[in-house]
Amino acid sequence: MRILFTYYIPSGGVETLNRTRCRALMKAGIETHLLYLRDGAGKQNIKDIPLFISDLDHEIAPVIQMYQYDAIICTSDYLMLPRLRNMGHTGRIIYEAQGLGMLSQARELMGVAAPYIQSYADAAICTPTPHLMQLYHEFLAGFPQFYIQNAVDTENCPPVPSETSLPDAKGPVLAWVGRLEKNKNWLLYIETAVELIKSVPDLQLWMFQDANLYDPAERAYFEALVAQYQLSERLTIRSNVPHHEMPRYFYEVGRSGGLMFSTSHIEGFGYAVAEAMSCQCPVLATASDGVQFFIEHNRTGKLIMEHIPSLAAAEALELISSSTLRGSIRTQGQEHIRQHFSPHRYVEDVFNVLRAMGFPL
Fold this sequence. Notes:
By secondary structure, this protein is of the alpha/beta class. It folds into 2 domains: 165 residues, 3-Layer(aba) Sandwich (Rossmann fold), CATH 3.40.50; 168 residues, Rossmann fold. The protein is built from 12 helices and 13 strands. The strands form 2 sheets. A 7-stranded parallel sheet has the order 3-2-1-4-5-6-7, with helices on both faces. Strands 10-9-8-11-12-13 form a 6-stranded parallel sheet, sandwiched between helices. β4, α3 and β5 form a beta-alpha-beta unit. α1 crosses α12 and α4 crosses α5. The radius of gyration is 21 Å and the shape is globular. The model has no long low-confidence stretch (mean pLDDT 94).
């Protein structure tokens, strides 16, 4: 059996998801390929999976005809659905919702996408995230729907020692992963850091970004606040870190006595949170829907229900200062990810979906 996964650009959580599930499915005997419409920094992470990058029908069509995919899974890109049919694909097409942004954006997108999904796809899948399930029930009522959890690759956590070790952090690290855009809510991270520094004067700030993807207005505002609050000496920004190196950074954040802070308004899943937890990096997160799959407050991580810097700083300070709570969260968080989000479980769920669609597996 042969499956193609399509998406706009190799970056962020979808790039991680595609790599993880392709490798897991290949181990289970399913041939998998990737198609991205544009080049992106995440291409550096794809080493062992057939990869195509093009947004031109006359370049994509020969691939579709050559490999005769049994199923194509289109992530978020509803306009790709009719294109695939026009290129002659007669196999199954599955639409998948991932990374649709803030709720208002996701609702608007689903309203436009629904007629395309119902006309050209055979089914729709997404994670069992409440806001995504609500949108599917609202816009795709009566259409075949399946809900499966994403997979997290935990094989590299804790990381294997490397010849090029990271420099020791000069103090507890408050880490952040994302893009400089409104939904990722980087402003809460900066304002919380300013509050936390009052109690943790040696606090270090590590931000992991994709320098190619950002809102120009948000970036300008970010740079102005960094200067206003005089954060530059304690702030380290890393862009497009190869994915296989991230476990070392997450592990070092945990070892420093610090934590990762996930500040998003809404997340369908939240890969950075899951991967940090799997590497024994404790996480404080806003209750952004998808991350609540991972975090049970004060057991596997910490959750805040309101986007208030003083509240976030107080929770972060407790995590930094209480070695007992910190140790418990690091251990239980890692075990939770390994137990509930394994690639093996994902493969079983995908097989169940394919069987329900009539494939003889």
